[in-house]
Specification:
Blueprint: E1 3-8, E2 11-16, E3 19-24, E4 27-33, E5 36-46, E6 62-74, E7 81-85, H1 90-108, E8 111-115, E9 127-132, E10 136-147
Parallel strand pairs: 5-10
Antiparallel strand pairs: 1-2, 2-3, 4-5, 6-10, 7-9, 8-9
Amino acid sequence: MDQDYYFTAGGIVLEQYGMEVMSASPNIRIDDTSSGPRLELFLYGITSDFYRISGIESLPVSIRLAGTSQIDEAITAPDVVSLRINGEGEMAWSDQLTSILVESGMVEGIDFTVTLPADWDDPLDQVEIDIGNLASVYAKIGEMEVNI
């Protein structure tokens, strides 16, 4: 069985038989606050070089947080938050975010639109998700350094 795993922005994507699923979800949620719905995203990327390991290997791995940045903004209508996903795992990310928004939207009235790429294999084409009716957005973005 041919499987590939990708760590993208804090989520682990499993690709198998040309399909992608989110094996471990990133930390993304919508909370109801006193000022209205708040989108919170905790996204982490790897800044180190890419390594591909196959077979059964035993390697020492060290991971450290190299740096972080954050965004904490109020949103006023008609402004929307736009998330654009491109590259490895974009199908899984699209499904995962849609699932989160449908689940939250049924409770809190979140409006969103999903625009899928015309060609999933085109590296310039991307998934775009626009989210409306939010009061605020908080995003913490971290860069991890991995040494093998």
